[in-house]
Amino acid sequence: MKLYLVGDSTVASFNDYTYFYPRFGYGTKLQDYFNNVEVINLALSGRSSKSYLKEKNYLKLKELLKDGDYLLIGFGHNDEKADDESRFTDASRPLDDETSFQYYLYNYYVKLALDTHAIPILCTPICRIAKNNEYQGTAIHDTVTGNYKEAILKLADRLNILGIDLTTPTLSDAKEGYEKAALYHAMTAGKMVDGILCYDISSVDKTHLNEYGANVVAYYVAAKIKQSNLDLEKYVKEDIKKPDISYLHMNPDYKLLSYEAPNMKSYIPQDKTFNFDGEFYGIAFGNLGTNNFSLDGYRANKIDDYYLVGQYGEKNFGTLCSTNDGLCGMFRQISIKDNFTIEAEATIIDVNYVDQAGFGIMLRDDLYLNQKAAKEVIASNYITSGVITNAKSYVINYKRESTTKITRSSNVVHHPYFKGDKFKLYLNRLGQRVIVRVSNEEFSYENEYLDFDLQAHDFNNMYVGLFATNGTIVKYSNISFKITGNAKEA
Hints:
13% helix; Jelly Rolls; nine-stranded antiparallel beta sheet
């Protein structure tokens, strides 16, 4: 017996190496409630019933789903994001409307199962927890574009298939109080209390479950299947019980962070080639290789109507390597609650052809002011609309969300970048979705990053800037930065 799962981050698996209580989708724990059932979790973080269709996992589902299999469908959290056309589906519209939530659920998932003689199961989204203990609106998926829970249950009833309400029981759990509800959810950070390492509730993720919460929601799913008339109910283990708090486990590899968000008012230019122009701060940080910043070619300053940023001299300094970074740039602080767009034109002024060099727009989780030392080990989360070199080639767009790895896209240009080369850079943050694009006369590459963790260090802010490092000086001009609205929760 095979049980396939599709859905969003509340169903999917994660690799949260740095979290105190890592994220777990409930799909990762369903296997524990069945005998002789293979659970195949194809859910993907950040997707909606609409955006999932372009993923390889959807093609895989269409290829693998067979007669007698089961398909559990768990979308909703991202479908309700009306400000994101790529993911939004409308719960207020009827089944026959091609823009409706029900239309996508039925035509691309339920019908797919029925046409292959598989058995579909629809699940409503789990609730988001609320600090004020007031549950309405998006917390319970009842929005200006419809009630997503009700849309799912009405569709299941109309089609006479199993619809599992996960919104109501998770809402009941949440209403026991925020401090208790938070223990079902992921937390990025811990803190010391009387010499003991404890969780830091201020770092709680109000959407995503931890291992305990995932076990609880998986139990709710299994219990409803056990009560159904599906043949699958015979495979649910006997005497299953709702998990207790003994299922709550701290990440054994968690390391307490010493990071404190910078007070931008304390900014002091590190050398004569750094400045603040009223919007962006010229900063160098990380593995810089020297503390004679200006003498050894570092600069991050405004000249007339452009920024001159990077490092270039007799020796190359700075790096973009697997275990740490060293770079300089013009950065600014932004509230984690803001959506924004930044664009710029980049012109290469000076370049040495070496590995681990690069430039571009960087959106990062943390920032470090006033570094005086030649080296600080910094390897924290960021996304770039930019370039990283392999000496004789370069890769367009990359990210770091591990202390041991930079993840490069598949966009490779098989020659170095040269002095005088020009690039157009674009980065857009829309809630949990970040779009980056780099283009010039030769190419245009765009990448999308979903549910990227920008709160691993700083819970309240993120930082965006124009950077360069390691034998590269860039002139940034025609810079446009705009706050475009409030970010919706995951």
